[in-house]
Amino acid sequence: MSRLRVGLIVNPCAGLGGAVALKGSDGVVDEALARGATPQAATRAAHALWAMRPLAAELALITGAGTLGDDAARAAGLAADVIYEGPARSTAKDTVQLARRLNTLRVDLLLFAGGDGTARDVADGVDETLPVLGIPAGVKMHSGVFATTPQAAGLLALAFLQSTARRVAPQEVMDLDEQAVRAGHVNPMLYGYLSVPEDPRLLQGRKVPAVAGDAVVAEAIAASVIEEMEPGVVYLIGPGSTTSAVKRALGGHASLLGVDAYLDRRLLASDATAAQLEDLVAHRPARALVTCIGGQGHIFGRGNQQFSGAVVRSLGRAGIRVLATPAKLQSLRGRPFIADLQDPEAASAVAGYVEVVSGYRSRAYYRCEAV
Amino acid sequence: MTTSSPMDSGAAGAQPYIPNSVPAVKAEMLRVIGARSIDELYADIPPELRLSRPLDLPAPCRSEHQLKRHVESLLARNVPAGEALSFLGGGCYQHHVPAVCDEINGRSEFLTAYAGEPYDDAGRFQALFEYASMMGELLEMDVVSVPTFDGCQAAATAVRMAARHTRRNVVLVAGNVGRDKATVMANYGRADLEFREVRFDPATGLVDVGHLGRMLDHEVAGFYFDNPSYFGTLQSGLDIAAAVHAAGALLVVGVDPGSLGVIAPPGSYGADIVCGDLQALGMHMNYGGGQAGFIATQDDEALVMQYPSRLFGIAPTRVPGEYGFGDVAYSRTSFDKRENGNEYVGTAAALWGITAGVYLALMGPTGMREIGAGIMQRNAYAQKRLASIPGVTLPHAGQAHFKEFVVNFDRSGRTVGEINRGLRERGIFGGHDLSAAFPTLGQSALYSFTEVHTQSDIERLVEALTGEVAR
Amino acid sequence: MSAGMQDISGFRFTDGRPNLRRYHQARWDEPVIFELSCPGERGVLVPEVEDQVAAAAGDPLAALPPDLRRAEPPRLPELSQNRVLRHYLRLSQQNLGADLNVDIGQGTCTMKYNPKINEQLARSPRMTELHPLQDADTVQGILDVIHRMEAVVREVSGMDAVSLQPRSGSHAIYANFAILRAHQEAAGTAGERDEVITTIFSHPSDAACAKLLGYRVITLYPDAAGYPDVEALRAALSPRTAALIITNPEDTGIFNSRIREFTDLVHAAGGLCIYDQANANGLLGITRAREAGFDMCHFNLHKTFGTPHACGGPAVGAIAVTGELARHLPGPRVVADGGRFRLEAAGAESIGKVAAFMGTASIVLRAYAWVMSLGAEGLREVAEVAVLNNNYMMTELVKIRGMSLPYAQGRRRIEQARYSWKQLADETGIHSDQIGIRAADFGVHYWTSHHPFVVPEPATVEPTESYSKADLDEFVDVMRQVAKEAYENPEHVRSAPHNCPVHAIDGSYFDDPDRWAITWRAYRRKLRAHRAGEAGTK
Lengths: 371, 471, 538
What we know:
heterotrimer, A: alpha/beta, 9-stranded mixed β-sheet, 5-stranded parallel β-sheet, 16 strands, elongated, C: alpha/beta, Aspartate Aminotransferase, domain 2, two-stranded antiparallel sheet, 13 strands, globular
């Protein structure tokens, strides 16, 4: 019987800082432990694994020794294959190394327990196509790679492994400079993408993954948008999984993580800075195509700060369109989009309602809160 | 007659259909809610939108007995086909409905169910799966839809499926398709499809295959014809299929499922999509309320993904040896994707699908063969007998027919309307008047003979027509 | 001293409230009918052809073109009559019709009582044996019924003209969009006005039918309080607006008091307003489409007007339009002509036909009988009690741990409400659809929401006027019990159902082209192929 191979990485430092009022845990483990923090990640990982026990007989867990994952596996009553021994106090390097090894083994699914930092480390170690799912254990998770709860992560992993379709969708990995956050400057950038199992409940509320997944809808949105592109108008396309579908359809060497400008369906500028964008919109009619990035519904201010307040002011409400699949909108669970522009005049251009392209020739108007 | 005041709601006594119309119960519920009156519950409806008078409706029949008398007095002014001798066809037919069919579709477990899960409504899912399976055997096809409204809708959807599948937008429709069906199809495609008519030969009632050949091009998504046609004629399909496929189009055929005990299913001569109406399989005519449509194809993933309707599949459960049912490829439907799904889907005619399954199970292969052969024999006999009446001709004599045929009265000098009026006086419902819809057929009527017609019924018609034609 | 007597009722009730039922649905393990087949059995015999007829007719198959001769008999099952009956009766026992259960969990479906007298009347041969092409003189009764029911719908809606031809609610929505298109073609605006605005809470068919008829769909998401927002509407309106289609109250049960403002804005922009009145049950005699400013509306007779749902039809969707649009209605139409009724062919501007014949007249008859048993007062009572029942449910349901009623805080609802189990889901990992499946173990239906879910972990409950306070309490008790289990014994909820005819179904088959099987023949074929494949790899 061919077994289901699941990689497991636990970041023992994840989540240490929050409870003791340190924003995040990078570099402050000693301080956190001194303040009396207890490691949460292993417990959360164990909860997730516990939910996977119905598959125990077919499951082959592959992980690192001790706090890197074996402890959590034992706590959940599951046997694991240990393929990596780290030092007593493991670091980010160990996460990356273990991720690399699991990637080489082409595991069916890689589960990791941690936060945005751990997500970045995993992203460094794996190919884009390896299915990865985050067990939330960090302080604040902006990346879209996490399930809502550890238990939900286990259940989603279970459903994914048991399905024949094994649908995944690209989700953003965010790059927060935690020291900057601590110092009061929040500046999260988009770091990259991971392939994450599609949550069937977010797609259609049913137990089974859809035959036509979210990727197909994203392509339909892209087709619709491209069909309506007007000549002589510059289209500023931001990063994100849905907007990437437009870039792919248009071709050219578009950036993965930046804002690209297109004119008459050809790439004009790649990975433009805010200054370049401000210059572009000053001299031509322009439209911005953005999508929500990360798990909190941000359409501005997380990963696309190149859309500065000045750019948004120039574009105005009519110049901004959000591309979002119905599944993405559903994942917001009724919460509005967030536009974090730090610019009241720009904010008023998107506050209230924004126009969303949600399908082929289908639009929606969705609430947006803006600052 | 009690008028309602704003604070107190209407009728003084309890109403049998409304348990909580008992005033004391209302009061208790209001107390729990924390409202002083029901009117408070309507607070969100602004006064200017509130109706300020009672609805102007007829006085009700409050007792069941009064209701029965009233409705029966209305129904008394209907002359049902069973009381007269009816030869009407044209898409709705008088067949015997086995008692078990009515018994099953009268069960309130089925009659009052709706959209429950495959768990609590397991019976409905299995009954519909079995209906689809039995239709699959009749049609020799692996995929059959949950029923749609009627055969006209089935045809309309089938050609849209062909258009989606081929990504072309021209649909050819045979001229010997009923006018209502052609209208429904054209309406359904009015936004984005172009319909072109392929002529039929008035001498035979069959599709003009030469004309079809000239109309097929790379823009055509599909060709639709009924077999038997609206005129009851049966036509060879092989050369039609060859021509249609050579043009890269799909062949879409409407069929009478009651004929398939003896007639080859269209898939066997090359039809890609088959559709039709289920009414003949166990539904009373109900003044047109017994109609239900079906669509069928082979189990080709690309074709399956074009269906707008629900498709029920079978699957095991977590208990070994147990099986259940559920929606196949649900993501293609508007239920899942709203405007991004195929067409739209909703309530249609599910109970008639279940009934058709019961009918087919009762009839079995032998029953279906016997009824089909018997109907063809009665029609052949009737043709011979009617043809012998002076003034009556059969324009499509010599063609094979299933359960109806065209009778022409031009030589009699009388119109179909006049003849039918005379027949009615004799207690007979003559064939449907085709003269308005098909002017090339002159004063013609469509006469249908099924298993309910005896030799003496046919002879009575012959005698009556002989008399009417001679007037 | 005599022996004691047991208080039987004491086992069924606690403090006057019924205990939860030890419900178990029939589980017959009934095979698929093909597996019951016994070659040679006959279920019903067909009338034989008389000798003279057969002799004169000859072999009918001989006249057939060769490719039309059926080579092999169809492989239908062969069963004797009572075996067919038993099989389907058993299947019916595994089906939870509204007559049997407190069917308020199927929100928006309006699962009210279908009076049996109406069923009996409609099964009279003077309804069932009418051919739709019979001369009008011979069907004056049913034509009269259709005419009267059209008058009822005119009055209930306030509109000028009605058609009962569509065969369902969605079909009626389609017909209304066809009328919209016809209106635009007549006015010459078809090319320029190609956008239809709706809300995300509307029935999927509202959006889907618009798209089918060539319109682009613009969907408004709700504001924070759950209402469609006027500002969003203003943003969506443009010279390209053809129409707004909206439900009010929406499936959340919330009535948009500013609806007249909405319709005025749409008219000012040059569009028409279409009212999807699937949710009319709380409004009969209270408020109407006309006064709210609509140009078209529709009703589901199998919801609001008490005709049976029949597992999903046959049914009727009644459409009602203003006088200006009446010329576009489908035909033929029933016309009163000096005490008699006749059928008038559709005019040149009619959309033609949407259904065969006159639609589902047998359902129109049932709806008419329902209206006639109630009258104006009764219809108003229906609405008021439906609203009373719903608000009572709301009061009781929100007391359950883990359940909330999002939107419109502190405001009433009309005839249904959409709840959220988000708190329960976050705390227990149990999702709304799992609650529903466990609820089936207690003999009740349950429905989440149309897709996509905007309210997270939704449950939509519509009591209608047909259930008693005790029935409502029973449903609340079931919800409370399942929620309690979610917190205390989640595995039992997750592994549900336990008391239904079947257990958890392996849904992976349904989206896998290699394994989905929509007919028994497909299933057998694929099973053989899989077995051959497995044998090949050994």
